[in-house]
Amino acid sequence: MGERVPDLSPGVGPRPSFPVAPPVRRWRTGPVWLAVQLVLSGSLLLLFVLPIVSLFTYAPFSDVVQAAHSTQVAEAIWLTLFASGIAVLAAVVFAIPMGYLLARRSFRGRAVVEAVVALPVVVPHLLVGLGLFFLIVPGTPLYRFTQAIGFPVYDTIWGVVLVMVFVSAPYTVLASELSFRAVDGRVLEAARSLGAGSATAFLTVTLPLALRGIVAGLLLTWARAVSEIGGLLVLAYAVYPGGIYNGPVTTTVSVYIYDLFQNGNLAGAAAVSSLFLLIAFALFLVVRIGERSGWVPWRRGELAP
């Protein structure tokens, strides 16, 4: 604390004194600091951009156009988008309630549950496929159960969705948990004092305030789902018609690109990769346009998918 300075004015008794705040040290930010920021940020940006540029330069643009008109490529992309959409829907149904439970409820073993939820984010992707493979290997009770209810897993769209949910849903759980924790409890108490029940307070107060973070988690879930390959190589290398998928035998776009690379068709792999990058870029561009237009639940710059 600073020294107390008494008032010694003539004819006036001592007055209450207040501590003198110590001087605040101000860090100077000049051109050198700006140059450091630009160099570090530019280096990371180059790491992001250069591999993408190399894809587009390796394969001629005519090959990208040819890939866009390929029936096999279109089937692989459609399956990927369809399965990842189901995975995102599953994250909405299951991951958001789990995030709310972890954020608002204290129970024994919560730390263990949080560690288990985060585990799929860090484990090797091939391990995911092996774990699910041994879980539903023919002869196990779960295998017989999935066959009995009409949801076979091996080489079906349900196998693709299962792998995608396993590796991507934790992003929505973690984002939802952080978003629900950030909601001020005083706001909820005010809503309850006005007569709102638990469900009404959740739908009208908690969910709208946490929606921005939840949407960010769902975007990450989708991005992680469409990029999965390790688990699919084990559990659903090829997808056969059945259930909600009645298309031809195909595979996800990541496995399709992997096959092209393994067969030595580097130009084809680069062309299909470039095409899918354009599709992903267009989707994220729509999000940015939505920020400017105001039809998304956040303002420009508040969400960085």
Number of helices: 12
Examine the coordinates and then state which fold CATH places here, giving the name of the CATH topology: MetI-like fold
Order of helices and strands: HHHHHHHHHHHH
How can the largest sheet be summarized?
none
β-strand amount: under 5%
Radius of gyration: 27 Å
Structural class by helix and strand composition: mainly alpha
Report the mean per-residue pLDDT as an integer. 84
In the CATH scheme, the class would be Mainly Alpha
CATH superfamily: MetI-like
Instruction: Tell me, briefly, the overall form.
Output: globular
Taking pLDDT < 50 over at least 5 consecutive residues as the criterion, the unreliable ranges are: 300-305
CATH A-level architecture: Orthogonal Bundle
The tally of beta strands, per DSSP, is: 0
Distance between the termini: 45 Å
Helix share of residues? 55-70%
Give the domain tally.
Answer: 1
Quick summary:
With 305 residues, this protein is mainly α.
Description:
The protein is mainly α. The protein has a single domain, classed as MetI-like (MetI-like fold, Orthogonal Bundle). The protein contains 12 helices and no strands.
Lay out the secondary structure:
Blueprint: H1 31-58, H2 61-68, H3 71-104, H4 110-122, H5 125-135, H6 141-148, H7 157-182, H8 185-193, H9 198-226, H10 230-235, H11 253-262, H12 266-293
Tags for this model:
mainly alpha, MetI-like fold, 69% helix
